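Worked problem 6 (solution included).
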Amino acid sequence: MTHQFPPLTTEQKKELHEIALRIVSPGKGILAADESIGSMGKRLNQIGVENNEENRRLYRQVLFTADDRIDNCIGGVIFFHETLYQNSDDGVPFVKMIKDKGITIGIKGMFTQQWCTKNGTAFSLCFLCTDNNVVKMIPIHTDPQKD
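Solution. The predicted structure is:
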């Protein structure tokens, strides 16, 4: 099957390999914290909590500030777009909080590498391709208009 992307360079293959190793190194996995607003609404509704941005932020904060012993078990966290702009109660951006733990951040959705880099994510879900000659994980194709 052909696609619109050029083949990976040796450097790009190396970068992709390093990202993959960080995410799934022995004993580590991916925390899928990429629930959409609708999915979060279903979760919150079950416990009688209103589905608003603040309650979604609080839910994510609980995930990201759990016992530090789990940090060694998480190689990557998949964010929902809204999460990129949220902070902890102390004002620390969730992106910084996760990166400071040495965990790779990804984003759910179709975003170009330029957008991912600007917003602090290392990958976008979920197939391996190139975008402007930079390796990343993306959904089937990219849409440069999303930058």
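Discussion: The two ends are 27 Å apart (CA to CA).
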